[in-house]
Amino acid sequence: MNIKPVAGIEPPYYAVVFTSVHRDDPDGYAETAVRMEELVGDVPGFLGYESARTPGGLGITVGYFRDTDSIAAWRRNLEHQEAQRRGRAEWYESYSVHVAKVERSYGFELG
Amino acid sequence: MNIKPVAGIEPPYYAVVFTSVHRDDPDGYAETAVRMEELVGDVPGFLGYESARTPGGLGITVGYFRDTDSIAAWRRNLEHQEAQRRGRAEWYESYSVHVAKVERSYGFELG
I want to staple A52 with a disulfide (CB 3.0 to 4.6 A). Which of A15, A26, A39, B60 is the partner? Predict the structure, then answer.
């Protein structure tokens, strides 16, 4: 998991915001999350991601992609589709996805 | 803090993704965060927010706004500006902000 904000990508690019609430004790989730991190890294136009989860609360993962083609390629990945299916069946209480075109971005780093 | 994903907003709308790494023991941060939650709720066009923080790791807050005017109104808020100044001086190791126009969104809720 990244512990540093993704920075320095030149707009336009896309952010896919995925927020979720887990069910209790989601068996097999952690292994699949690690596998998805590996897989998405191979998608052309994938730029990075950030993830945070409050214990017992909300999880937010933001994936950054160059364009809608790269998002579509990730959506078509069969192993990813299977993980999504399993997520709905076994892991998630609820989730939301927001696909958004980044118009500007900036950051701060302690000097 | 919200523990349920924001859902059911009709695009287009804006997502402001704020990811941050704290310094150790950020004094005064929690009180200010609560105050900012109150304040942003008064901004016309503010639609909601989601927040997660991995203990010792990354924090991600996503604010949803109807349009760029409502984001600009929040940026002009003087108390918010002071909190940002204090954040750079005292609280954050680093942060990134991505301002993005949501083109589509969808969700899942356990039936």
Answer: B60
Q: B37 Cβ partners below 8 Å, 6+ apart?
A: B49
Instruction: Quote the distance between the C-alpha of residue B95 and its chain's center.
Output: 12
Residue B52 has its nearest CB partner, among A52, A98, A101, at A52
pLDDT band at A24 (very low <50, low <70, confident <90, very high): confident
Instruction: Search chain B and give the residue with CA nearest A49.
Output: B19
Percent with pLDDT over 90 in chain A: 86
The whole-angstrom distance between B42's CA and the closest CA on chain A is 23
User: CA A62, CA A47: separation in Å to the nearest integer?
Assistant: 11
Q: Which CATH class is domain B13-102?
A: alpha beta
Would an 8 Å CB–CB cutoff place B57 in contact with chain A? yes
Convert the pLDDT of each residue in B2-53 to its tens digit.
556 677 789 999 999 999 999 987 889 999 999 999 999 999 999 999 999 9
Coil, strand, or helix at residue A52?
strand
The CA-based dihedral angle spanning residues B99, A101, B63, B26, taken in that order and rounded to the nearest 10 degrees: -50
**Residue B19 to residue A9: CA distance in whole angstroms:** 14
Domain regions of chain B by residue span: 13-102
| B92 and chain A in contact, CB less than 8 A | yes
Taking only the tens place, the pLDDT of each residue in B66-101 is 999 999 999 999 999 999 999 999 999 999 999 999
